[in-house]
């Protein structure tokens, strides 16, 4: 524990010092923590020794995903969804299940896994995360509808994929152990907790008897999140659906609470994300990367360059998006942080295929982080105005245009 704390503190300091550079180049803090975990783990230097069954792994994964889903939900209140649903709706309604299905087909026929395990892998790898494509989402020269599409989609699809992950994981644990009634109750209870607690807290603060001071306002969202987490634990409601529902509820009914907590909440979620990435990297060893064989690496490539692109192409037929915009959406479907945590959850679940599922998920996520976090700057620059591209390129473009105008018809 001491070595892990020291490693995290040192890497966090390094990430802070390099954060400005990372915003301008292909350097990625997510990739930095992943690589650091790999180098410090048992597979390399052995400084940080972790096992899949360690309580720290499960607890950190749980807290990190809870925080991420809570802050994701805050970014997509019902008002935002109603105002920007047309394009994100295609990605969520068609793109997500198609990505899941194509990934599952590849896992079944290429890796030889059973259908349940293949569908579980598809559900784990279906969510996207623009954290690994920050330059594209944050570049104001990228069309607003494209940035909004990626933001809304990534904010919602973690929560939408979760029930599929839970159902397929329960089935993989053994059909005799699967009780759909209990699972439905757990998921439903999570949603009720996630809606009821924030709504009640916001309504209480709006009465004349209660009011948060300026100093304590940022803690309001934290208090709501902690209460949802604690009640979910006690009642055995699904924590992750509760987190996402709570975020959406705060965004819908408490705009002031949302604004005061937004920056603070994102910092908390970022810390937990980086911690989980460090742990995730420490669990990846050279033996694991080699054990997947060539089929595993081919699967990882297909999951990135085939599953998401084909699903997006089908989803956006007749949508009005340009070819460049569709290509950007198709490529920047990185296997995000939710996939990391879902993989950790499966690894510690105890199902028979846990290690195999984790191995194939891990190599896909590693490849995604490397490829997507190192190409976001390049693709984002493709949307720059002509005045921002190199002078020679602008001149060449104008000369070509004039040549076409002067050419005889």
General description of the model:
InterPro entries: Cation/H_exchanger_TM (IPR006153), Na+/solute_symporter_sf (IPR038770). Residues 14-375 form the Cation/H+ exchanger transmembrane domain. It is a multi-pass membrane protein. The chain crosses the membrane at residues 32-50, 57-74, 94-112, 159-176, 183-202, 222-250, 271-290, 296-317, 329-351, 357-379. One of its GO terms (biological process) is proton transmembrane transport. With 409 residues, the protein is mainly alpha-helical. The protein has a single domain (54-384), classed as Na+/H+ antiporter like fold, CATH 1.20.1530.20. 77% of the residues lie in helices and 0% in strands. The protein contains 18 helices and no strands. Helix 3 (55-74) packs parallel to helix 11, helix 5 runs antiparallel to helix 6 and helix 5 crosses helix 8. The longest helix is centred in the middle third of the chain and has 29 residues, at 144-172.
CATH architecture descriptor: Up-down Bundle
Specify Rg, calculated over alpha carbons. Answer: 22 Å
Approximate strand percentage: under 5%
What is the residue-mean pLDDT, rounded to a whole number? 80
Number of distinct beta strands: 0
Stretches where pLDDT is under 50 for at least 5 consecutive residues are 386-399
Termini, distance in Å? Answer: 75 Å
Largest sheet: none
Structural class: mainly alpha
CATH topology call: Na+/H+ antiporter like fold
């Amino acid at each position: 524990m001491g070595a892990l704390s020291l490693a995290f503190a040192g890497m966090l300091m390094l990430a802070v010092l390099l954060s400005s550079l990372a915003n301008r180049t292909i350097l990625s803090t997510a990739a930095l923590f992943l690589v650091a975990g790999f180098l410090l783990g048992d597979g390399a230097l052995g400084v940080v020794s972790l096992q899949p069954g360690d309580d720290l792994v499960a607890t950190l994964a749980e807290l990190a995903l809870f925080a991420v889903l809570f802050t994701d939900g805050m970014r997509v209140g019902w008002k935002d969804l109603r105002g920007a649903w047309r394009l994100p709706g295609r990605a969520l309604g068609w793109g997500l299940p198609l990505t899941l299905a194509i990934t599952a087909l590849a896992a079944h026929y290429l890796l030889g896994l059973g259908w349940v395990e293949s569908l579980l892998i598809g559900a784990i790898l279906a969510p996207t995360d623009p954290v690994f494509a920050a330059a594209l989402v944050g570049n104001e020269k990228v069309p607003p509808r494209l940035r909004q599409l990626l933001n809304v989609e990534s904010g919602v699809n973690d929560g939408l994929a979760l029930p599929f992950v839970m159902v397929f994981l329960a089935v993989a644990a053994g059909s005799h152990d699967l009780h759909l009634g209990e699972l439905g109750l757990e998921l439903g209870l999570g949603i009720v907790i996630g809606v009821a607690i924030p709504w009640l807290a916001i309504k209480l603060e709006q009465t004349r008897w209660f009011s948060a001071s300026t100093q304590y306002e940022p803690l309001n969202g934290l208090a709501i999140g902690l209460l949802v987490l604690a009640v979910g634990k006690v009642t055995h409601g699904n924590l992750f659906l509760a987190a996402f529902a709570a975020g959406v509820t705060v965004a819908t009914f408490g705009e002031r609470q949302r604004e005061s907590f937004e920056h603070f909440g994102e910092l908390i979620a970022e810390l937990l994300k980086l911690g989980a990435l460090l742990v995730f990297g420490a669990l990846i060893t050279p033996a694991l990367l080699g054990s997947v064989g060539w089929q595993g690496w081919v699967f990882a490539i297909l999951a990135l360059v085939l599953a998401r692109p084909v699903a997006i192409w089908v989803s956006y037929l007749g949508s009005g998006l340009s070819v460049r915009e569709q290509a950007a959406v198709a490529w920047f479907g990185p296997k995000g942080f939710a996939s990391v945590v879902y993989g950790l959850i499966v690894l510690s679940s105890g199902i028979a295929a846990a290690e195999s599922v984790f191995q194939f998920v891990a190599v896909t996520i590693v490849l995604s982080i490397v490829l997507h976090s190192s190409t976001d700057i390049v693709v984002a620059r493709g949307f720059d105005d002509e005045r921002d591209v190199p002078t020679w390129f602008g001149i060449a473009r104008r000369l070509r245009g004039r040549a076409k105008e002067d050419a005889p018809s």
